Automatic annotation (TrEMBL):
Segments forming domain Ketoreductase: 7-188
Identification of the protein by name: SDR family oxidoreductase
Organism the protein comes from: SAR92 clade bacterium H455
Keyword Oxidoreductase: yes
Family under the similarity heading: Belongs to the short-chain dehydrogenases/reductases (SDR) family.
Listed InterPro entries: KR_dom, NAD(P)-bd_dom_sf, SDR_fam
Source superkingdom: Bacteria
Keywords for this protein: Oxidoreductase
Keyword Protein biosynthesis: no
Amino acid sequence: MKTFSNKVAVITGAGSGIGRYLAILLAKSGANIAACEINEAALAETVAMLRDYPVKVSSHPLDVADKAAIEALPEQVIAQHGHIDLVFNNAGVTVDSTFEDLSENDWDWVMNINLHGVINSSRAFLPHLKQRPEAALINTSSIFGMIVVERQSVYHTAKFAVRGFTESLVKEHKGGSVQIHSVHPGHIGTNILGNARVNEAKESANAFQRLIGKLAGIEDDREAMAEFFQRNGMHPSRAAQIMLNAVLKNRPRIFVGADAKLMDLCQRLMPIHYEKLFPLITVPLTLLRNKKPIQGLPSC
């Protein structure tokens, strides 16, 4: 893709974190925005921020787990914008629990948002994207679509599946007008841990989170860990910028952050025991990671 100027971008999870900054950075680049989010108050905040840019913005309250709502969304966006050029399937949730203690309802909640929402959106939007001279479908997996820790079985299942699904689409659309991208963020300063559902039956955090908690001396305080996780990750504006740069360069697999790249390398070097290398990554990167927003952008 040569430019974002005058493109129409659909973004799920646009009410906060990476999704909000994707909307802001795309609007700054001249793209028109269809912002989608289940939290209507957060969605309104993002839309208000976008008023600073001379682009058209539409607001779409959306539960990505609702298949009928996803299927209706393309026509709603087209009615307001005329066409669709980019789709960012960015919304995501998690549950902190062992598999045995995880309820079927919580399993379905994560799978319906993280996996089925991506699949249903891809199916709904691809026919419209193929009508454009250049277009892109960007599906967010995770570094946890490459490696695993305990107490995240449902999240891993969804994110590994998003990776496989998206990379299959990459091959199916090779040489066509639609770019396909699988995104693998590392530790980004979002509130996904704070918003996670938690099963307190046994341990209260997975190995990766406990390591972060040990670094901060707050291993037993989940709320403090969530705040530390958000405060000490890469700022989501920088994550969004990395994604957009990679879309312009048509990179099918997008690693966001040095930690994501290094964790992927760890699992290549030690396919079974890669977690033994994690302290070598998390300790220095927690100290060195750029936690400030891109200059000129809001910090929220």
